[in-house]
Design goal:
With 395 residues, this protein is of the alpha/beta class. The chain has helices at 16-28, 53-64, 75-79, 85-96, 108-111, 120-126, 139-153, 169-177, 188-197, 203-208, 222-231, 234-254, 258-267, 279-291, 296-303, 314-325, 334-341, 345-362, 369-383, 387-394; strands at residues 2-9, 33-38, 70-72, 100-107, 128-133, 157-161. Strand 2 (33-38), helix 2 and strand 3 form a beta-alpha-beta unit. Helix 12 (234-254) runs antiparallel to helix 13 (258-267) and helix 14 (279-291) packs antiparallel against helix 15. The relative contact order is 0.10.
């Protein structure tokens, strides 16, 4: 029987405390996967939603992208209705089947009010719970509630102790609003996303900031640009700058560094003449040897931009996808791929990988094994425990 953790919340924004609890729950309960489900509107927070639904969903995807055991569902965002735990868990069970055991992950404060929740008896009798508790914090109250629900409803409850992390979403929003640093409370790519989209700032502060065109981090060194212009013919140069434009836009949206994305995009086809599968590795070696670029994420993004690979980072996915959907590309299905890339980086990458695999096989050509591995890795990360969602993807 599969064991899936369900972690719901407004995640406004998601932070390292959430991620630590999810990872501890995964390890202690031997979960196959933790599924994060950002709510459309929490019934307890209907008067406060500083970030849009799409931004909160983007932030959860960015924050969880480096953990292959984490997945994200937009079921509550798509539903556009007040989210109750009973409804969410019921839909998860319908999608995943009776052979999946669901564990609802929550903290001490939330669980202490469990008996007052909507359809509390249904929740407590049909699902398991993982409670993240901090040593010494309301421990007697928590034990009393756990013992009571176990006796009254037969509830399966696992209490796990986590270090006291003084992090809350509201404190993060308040700190950003008054200009305090929140570094190390959030993953760096997520912090960049918040800065780029100017989330949680006081409206007066936003009004005083320079416009997008004045921000400096989409500039590259002049000599790099000159090298690329000198190496590429007009058609390849047009493609390259199309990839630059697309990659920078995607980096801004999905929390990668736009300058890194731009540099990688400029270099990705600089040695296209050496062959379809070899030119990425040659370009990466050139970046390192001639420009002293040692950032492994950048080098790998260029090195594997044609094939993809298992465990791709956000930057690698962005360059791989930007190469496939830049404005000069014109092939059957590219518009669908562009539309998918507007809101889900992983789904768009999987769509592109799947089509590449189908095309290569239809032509009787040899498929690079890294492409198959990349597709299988993404498919497992996104859909393990959710076969119905995978079927909808392929439809």
């Amino acid at each position: 029987m599969r064991r899936i953790g369900i972690f719901g919340g407004s995640f406004d924004p998601i932070h390292n405390g959430h991620l630590h609890l999810a990872e501890e729950a995964r390890c202690m309960a031997k979960l196959d996967q933790v599924l994060f489900i950002p709510t459309w509107i929490s019934p307890f927070k209907q008067d406060s939603d500083p970030a849009s639904c799409q931004q909160r969903l983007d932030m959860v995807r960015i924050a969880t992208s480096s953990n292959p055991s984490f997945a994200v569902s937009d079921m509550e965002i798509r539903r556009e209705a007040v989210s109750y735990t009973a409804d969410t868990l019921k839909r998860c069970r319908e999608m995943m089947g009776e052979d999946t055991r669901l564990y609802f992950i929550t903290g001490t404060d939330t669980f202490l009010t469990i008996e007052k929740w909507y359809h509390a008896e249904e929740i407590l009798t049909q699902y398991s719970f993982i409670i993240g508790s901090r040593p010494g914090y309301r421990e007697e109250d928590l034990i009393d509630v756990i013992e009571r629900v176990r006796e009254r409803y037969g509830t399966d409850v696992l209490k796990i102790e986590i270090p006291r992390l003084e992090i809350s979403s509201s404190d993060i929003r308040d700190s950003i609003r008054i200009g305090k640093s929140v570094r190390y409370l959030l993953p760096d790519p997520l912090l960049h996303y918040i800065e780029r989209h100017r989330l949680y700032l006081d409206p007066a502060a936003v009004a005083s900031l320079p416009g997008e065109e004045e921000l400096p981090y989409d500039q590259i060194d002049h000599d790099i640009d000159e090298v690329i212009r000198g190496r590429l013919k007009a058609t390849r140069l047009a493609h390259t700058y199309g990839v630059v434009e697309t990659a920078v836009g995607m980096a801004e949206k999905f929390g990668a560094d736009p300058r890194k994305a731009r540099t990688c995009a400029l270099f990705h086809d600089a040695f296209r003449e050496v062959g379809n599968l070899a030119h990425g590795a040659v370009a990466a070696d050139y970046m390192e040897a001639e420009f002293s670029i040692t950032d492994e994420d950048m080098l790998n993004a260029v090195r594997f931009h044609t094939t993809g690979r298992k465990g791709m980072t956000v930057l690698e996915k962005i360059l791989f996808l930007a190469d496939a959907i830049e404005p000069n590309r014109n092939y059957p299905g590219v518009d669908d791929l562009r539309a998918m890339a507007e809101y889900d980086l992983d789904k768009a990458c999987l769509m592109s990988l799947t089509r590449t695999i189908e095309y290569v096989k239809s032509q009787g050509q040899e498929l690079d094994p890294r492409t198959q591995e990349a597709a299988e890795d993404l498919r497992y990360t996104m859909y393990s425990g959710n076969p119905a969602e995978e079927r909808r993807f392929h439809e």
